[in-house]
């Protein structure tokens, strides 16, 4: 299972800072997250980057059991 870490609005929409999910690709992982947490997370995910071990993942990016996926909404300011 990949470790998923939610940040900012994604954590709020998921109601959690993280969880472990079993998926073979980033696209499948996204579907599982929406299935588990609903429309609010789906809405937030449209604006998020999913980083796999610190590198932006695309829908077809293959996941390994040891991967860490960070769900990062856009950040403003700085």
Helices and strands, with pairings:
Elements (H helix, E strand, L loop, with lengths): L1 E5 L2 H6 L3 E4 L4 H12 L1 H7 L3 E4 L2 E2 L11 E5 L6
Parallel strand pairs: 1-5
Antiparallel strand pairs: 1-2, 3-4, 3-5
Helix pairs in contact: 2-3
Could you give a quick summary of the protein structure above?
The chain has helices at residues 9-14, 26-37, 39-45, and strands spanning 2-6, 18-21, 49-52, 55-56, 68-72. It is of the alpha+beta class and 78 residues long. It has a single domain (2-72), classed as Ubiquitin-like (UB roll) (Roll), CATH 3.10.20.
Walk me through the structure.
- This protein is of the alpha+beta class and 78 residues long.
- The chain has one domain: Beta-grasp domain (Ubiquitin-like (UB roll)).
- It is 32% helix and 26% strand.
- It has three helices and five strands.
- It has a five-stranded mixed sheet with strand order 2-1-5-3-4.
- It is globular.
- The model has no long low-confidence stretch (mean pLDDT 94).
List keywords for this structure.
Ubiquitin-like (UB roll), 5 strands, alpha+beta, five-stranded mixed β-sheet, 78 residues
């Amino acid at each position: 299972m990949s470790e998923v870490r939610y940040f900012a609005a994604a954590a709020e929409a998921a109601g959690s800072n993280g969880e472990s999910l079993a998926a073979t690709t980033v696209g499948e992982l996204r579907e599982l997250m929406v299935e588990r947490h609903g429309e609010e997370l789906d809405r937030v995910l449209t604006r998020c980057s999913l980083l796999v071990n610190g590198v932006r993942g695309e829908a077809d990016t293959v996941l390994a059991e040891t991967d860490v996926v960070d769900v990062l909404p856009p950040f403003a300011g700085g």
